[in-house]
């Protein structure tokens, strides 16, 4: 089959009424990535716009969804453009947000600018340079110690990712007692002895998450369902800088929407298929945790296939299996048979996403990931999505569903 940027070749997949339309999936992806969507962070107007758009997409495919709401205790967001300036013997300038400095998810609130000299030690009236891990209770205890000694804030190191940006983080544990600002490691060395003036107004805003769930009935309504999932939330845009969140995870969402359209128009399968567009993955897989609990309460045990990042094909598809699907379980057998038939290589690798919540709930589950050129970065844009990756993810998804329905 010839693959193009506008869709699959002219021949449909064996046993299907019509092939996966890559062009349509790309159109869905682009719609999710426009600036008005604001990076799809829960609690934002752009996120609500994305939810309405996806409801419309599934409804248009003949699958009007049900909405599941759940509380999110706090989404990290910047209330205003952050600012950080260095005045010292070797460096006098404003630093560039996201390229040279960034907010830290454990920072105490910083309602006003903080201006102070920088010291390697915890000194009264100074920023403290802290090297090493900022994880766990140890960092909180260290911050308490520095606060007790009169420090006004903490500067820590954060390495840039492959895109050259300091990765955006939208979740974190309870804040420590002092403001925390992350700098490139080389800048952390350069600012010692200088004066740093910073205003990084990081807020923790309560929000309501929304899962979008639609079910395609099967010919055997009492058969065990197949559950296809993908998270549609993103990390949200910065003030003045858009994060399209294309690879992570408008790509998986677009694959799921197009799979719903194809299966909704085909002959019914024996097993029901549920499509769940999940929310709150970037906050700690909250939407899948909520959905898995709902399924357990209803004593429903589906086979779960989660698609996270289908924007770049690196020669093989990563698959992570849950412990409830021991080899040779139905799910791995379906994925393996589908990959072999389509000529899409699979390999066992971590896929740290919503699939783990379903696995923890005891459901047979697999996380499938092809990758993305960039993620949690402004460069995660539709222009960097490989249509061939979407096409392969779509074909693999449809083939796996059909194999499960026929043999599960």
Automatic annotation (TrEMBL):
It comes from the Bacteria. Residues 1-22 are annotated as: Disordered. Residues 211-400 form the Peptidase M28 domain. InterPro entries: M28_fam, Peptidase_M28. This is M28 family metallopeptidase. It comes from Streptomyces cavourensis.
């Amino acid at each position: 089959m010839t693959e193009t940027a506008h869709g699959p070749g002219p021949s449909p997949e064996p046993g299907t009424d019509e092939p996966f339309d890559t062009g349509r999936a790309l159109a869905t992806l682009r719609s999710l990535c426009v600036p008005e969507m604001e990076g799809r962070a829960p609690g934002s107007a752009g996120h609500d716009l994305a939810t309405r758009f996806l409801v419309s997409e599934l409804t248009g495919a003949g699958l009007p969804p049900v909405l599941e709401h759940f509380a999110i205790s706090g989404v990290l967001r910047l209330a205003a453009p952050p600012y950080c300036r260095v005045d010292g013997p070797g460096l006098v300038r404003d630093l560039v947000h996201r390229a040279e400095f960034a907010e830290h998810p454990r920072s105490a609130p910083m309602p006003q600018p903080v201006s102070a000299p920088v010291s390697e030690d915890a000194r009264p009236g100074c920023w403290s340079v802290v090297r090493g891990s900022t994880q766990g209770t140890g960092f909180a205890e260290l911050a308490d110690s520095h606060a007790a000694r009169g420090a006004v804030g903490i500067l820590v190191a954060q390495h840039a990712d492959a895109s050259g940006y300091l990765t955006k983080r939208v979740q974190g544990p309870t804040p420590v007692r002092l403001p925390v600002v992350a700098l490139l490691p080389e800048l952390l060395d350069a600012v010692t002895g200088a004066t740093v003036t910073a205003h990084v107004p990081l807020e923790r805003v309560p929000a309501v998450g929304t899962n979008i769930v639609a079910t395609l009935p099967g010919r055997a309504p009492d058969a065990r369902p197949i559950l296809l999932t993908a998270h549609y939330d993103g990390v949200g845009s910065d003030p003045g800088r858009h994060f399209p969140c294309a690879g992570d995870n408008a790509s998986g969402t677009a694959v799921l929407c197009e799979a719903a359209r194809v299966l909704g128009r085909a002959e019914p399968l024996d097993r029901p298929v549920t499509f769940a567009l999940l929310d709150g993955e970037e906050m700690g897989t909250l939407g899948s945790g909520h959905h898995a609990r709902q399924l357990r309460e209803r004593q429903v045990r589906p086979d779960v296939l989660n698609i996270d990042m289908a924007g770049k094909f690196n020669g093989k598809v990563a698959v992570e299996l849950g412990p409830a699907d021991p080899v040779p379980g139905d799910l791995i057998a379906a994925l393996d048979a589908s990959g072999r038939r389509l000529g899409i290589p699979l390999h066992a690798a971590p896929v740290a996403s919503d699939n783990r919540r379903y696995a923890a709930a005891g459901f047979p589950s697999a996380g499938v990931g092809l990758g993305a050129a960039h993620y949690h970065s402004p460069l995660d844009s539709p222009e960097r999505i490989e249509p061939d990756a979407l096409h392969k993810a779509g074909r693999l998804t449809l083939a796996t569903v059909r194999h499960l329905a026929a043999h599960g």
